[in-house]
Design a protein that fits this description.
By secondary structure, this protein is of the alpha+beta class. 50% of the residues lie in helices and 20% in strands. It has a 6-stranded antiparallel sheet, sandwiched between helices. It starts with a helix and ends with a helix.
Length: 205
């Protein structure tokens, strides 16, 4: 019966979404515990491993961590992991510039979490961003700002290149937590490196 088949499909979809949420909760929890003990020298390596884990586990296509260049007012991809397959166009490094992605850039800098399930749901003011998404073959994704004490450090993205994705709200909220974990790790790394340089300067005196 069509009605029964539809109900079964709905139950199956809910089951898959629940499984993804439970898996995501565990991944975030494990990541949080791991980064507590990661030395500054291994932060970059751990971030790339984390991107791989989340991309593979959530059946996404690419994960990127962007860091903000205050002088140039642009976001530069410093850590990236993508599934093997056809070579994809990646925004110069990759990069989120104000010319290609003005709306996305503005929203992230304001601390907004972006969940794009389909390009058609983007607002009219994001028309330039929509064209850039199409050019770089991005179907949908999540982007969370990396903030420390109200200061904008960058962004973390999870991207779908093959097909549109329905990102559940619970997953988006936990992805924001992951962004906070990685932002704190980068901030701690920067502080430790600054302290190390200071000690080196003192030894020269």
């Amino acid at each position: 019966m069509p009605g029964a088949r539809s109900m079964k499909n709905g139950v199956r979809k809910d089951h898959v979404m629940l499984h993804e949420q439970i898996l995501f909760e565990k991944l975030v929890s494990d990541t949080s515990r791991r980064f507590v003990h990661v030395p500054a020298s291994r932060v970059d390596e751990e971030i790339e491993q984390t991107l791989q884990t989340f991309v593979e586990s959530l059946d996404a296509d690419r994960g990127v961590l962007y860091q903000y260049d205050l002088r140039k007012k642009e976001l530069y991809g410093t850590h990236l992991w993508a599934r093997t397959g056809p070579v994809r166009k990646v925004p110069e490094g990759p990069r989120i510039g104000t010319a290609q992605f003005p709306w996305v850039h503005k929203m992230l800098e304001q601390g907004e979490v972006l969940c794009i399930r389909t390009l058609e749901e983007l607002p009219e003011e994001a028309s330039a961003d929509k064209e850039s998404f199409r050019f770089f073959e991005l179907k949908s994704g999540i982007a969370v700002p990396l903030m420390i004490g109200g200061k904008f450090l960058g962004a973390l993205t999870l991207e779908a290149l093959e097909e549109e994705r329905d990102w559940p709200d619970a997953l988006v909220k936990r992805f924001k937590v992951l962004g906070e974990i990685l932002a704190n790790a980068l901030d701690r790394k920067a502080s430790e490196e600054k302290l190390r340089r200071s000690f080196a300067e003192i030894k020269k005196l």
